[in-house]
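Batch job 17 of 40 flagged for manual review because the log was empty.
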Amino acid sequence: MHMRPQVHPSADTFLDAAGQAHPRADASARIVSLVPSLTELLFDLGLGDRVVGRTGFCVHPREALRTVPKVGGTKDVKLERIRELAPTHVLVNMDENRRETVDELAAFVPHIVVTHPNTPQDNLALFALLGGIFGAEAAATRLADDLRAALDEAAALRAALPDERVLYLIWREPWMTIARDTYIAATLEAVGWHTLPAVEGGETGAARYPAFDWDAPWLPDAERVLLSTEPYRFRESHVEEVEHLAARPALLVDGEMVSWYGSRAAMGLRWLCALRRALAKASG
């Protein structure tokens, strides 16, 4: 993602993750979202009537999105379809969208809003950014307050339960996991699950989601394996296979609850807290 020079915003401009200052928009803003979690966030901020385009992976809120045109996927964006929709703003993410796509969009879209949350706490700035640009400050404040309460619940859980080391699977053949500096890893750490391997992948790129073999030297340190329902659609039928390969307990988890930032972050933290409590109760 092309990083722009840092700009110091005025009271009516808001800095995105690329350092670009965006002025406050009026009610005529036309928004295309290329990130599923950001699409959901826009609706939860009360901005659904300004969303004129979304990806095929943007599925929440399901009913409201039925009439919003699709513009391809997060990686294979249909540029001409976006051009036809004449957006004033396109929302992108450094992890989920290709830099080349963003550069091409910048040629005809007035405002490309770049996001890059890497921890649950980063959603506080995300709420302020989108709430500020689009005049939804009150809704953004409500979301921020709810997230702070969920973060407090997660911190209390960590104080009550011992931490565990886990392997989090996002793909099968090749088997792939996550680096420690991803949003997913930070969300899991918030509830006391430390991911393995203990590597960092950098700001963007494939190293953030490394492939591994089942004879990896760090694997014996993992106490549990978590199989995510996205991006690979792991199902209960895969759990036995993974338990055999890892020689560790394995569990299917809702990928949306772990990996979606935005307004789902608080819900996801509470879901993970409930899961950890249930596992602790089941084990004795």
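Reviewer: the log was empty due to a logging misconfiguration, but the result itself is present. The first helix runs from residue 36 to 44. Unflagging and moving on to job 18.
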